[in-house]
Write a structure and sequence with these properties.
This protein is mainly β and about 290 residues long. The chain contains two helices and 15 strands.
Length: about 290
């Protein structure tokens, strides 16, 4: 089975523990966990409100979805349909320990479609996670979306219902584009506990579909695969353009996508010194094939 590696942009914000005014952000999406009603105008955030998102030191990562996953298509019945997005992300941090010249590596899993409650120990869901409506529960009409845990501490698979993930979340057009909206789904916060000051940090993030049936490349024949490449303006590295009269594609045809992004040489000066990453590093806009 072939695998198509798709690059995506990864952005980072590095900050300290100070509580400064420039960390104030505007709420855009509804906070279902703080509303007594999930109807109409009661969901709208206060346009004059501000709250602080980045008061805990560390690195905040935002996974920027490729355009192919953020555009809707018009169905035969006239509705807009968004494609499903990856629901598993593996975040790996690397840095050089200057004392012993060894590379320190740690990885986490972001389980983006997990639904949990505030008191859910298994899910490790927290009240600062993204909230979504949950109408199957007459008592608590919301759930927290997404959970994160160290790769070596993978919890038992939950029996709870998962959330069908798209770029608009629960119906918010800014969901995937604005970090506060998707922080526990398409984001990750590394507190950098134990990382020495002065370290240069690299992050590698890989996203995929836990259920292969949800992968957009599953069961595509040659014609549909070429059409998908053209539709999304994708070109496979070392292969001719799919718009050629007789396009050449990998054999076998890729049936799985793996999304990858990297940031390198992030400067960590400790929890008392702020370093802003205003120009995020972006990976090469090429697709690669692994056969």
């Amino acid at each position: 089975m072939g695998v198509l590696f798709v690059p995506f942009a990864l952005e980072a914000y590095v900050t300290d523990n100070t509580n400064q005014d420039y960390k104030d952000i505007m709420p855009v999406s509804p906070n279902y966990a703080s509303r007594s009603s999930i109807l109409g105008g009661k969901l709208e955030p206060n346009p004059g409100a501000r709250y602080k998102m980045f008061t805990v030191a560390g690195v905040y990562l935002h996974f920027i979805l490729p355009d192919a996953l953020t555009h809707a298509t018009l169905t035969k019945d006239g509705n807009l349909e968004y494609p499903l997005i990856p629901n598993r992300w593996i975040v790996t941090r690397l840095y050089l320990n200057k004392q012993n010249s060894k590379v320190c590596v740690k990885s986490w899993v972001v389980e983006s479609d997990y639904l949990g409650t505030k008191d859910d120990d298994l899910g490790k869901a927290k009240s600062d996670s993204v909230s979504v409506p949950y109408l199957d529960d007459a008592t608590v009409s919301y759930r927290y979306l997404g959970r994160c845990y160290p790769l070596n501490d993978t919890p038992v698979l939950p029996t709870k219902q998962t959330f069908p993930l798209t770029a608009i979340g629960a119906g918010d057009s800014t969901f995937a584009a604005y970090y506060p909206n998707c922080r526990s789904v398409l984001g990750f916060h590394d507190k950098l506990d134990g990382v020495p000051e002065g370290s240069k940090i690299t992050y590698f993030v890989m996203g995929y579909y836990a259920n292969s049936a949800q992968d957009p490349l599953t069961s595509l024949d040659k014609d549909k695969f070429v059409q998908y490449l053209i539709q999304n303006n994708w070109k496979i590295a070392n292969f001719p353009s799919p718009t050629d009269p007789d396009p050449v594609i990998p054999d076998p045809i890729p049936e799985k996508t793996v999304f990858h992004g990297m940031l390198y040489s992030l400067a960590w000066e400790g929890p008392i010194s702020t370093v802003l990453v205003s120009q995020p590093v972006r990976c090469m806009q090429l697709l690669e094939i692994l056969l």
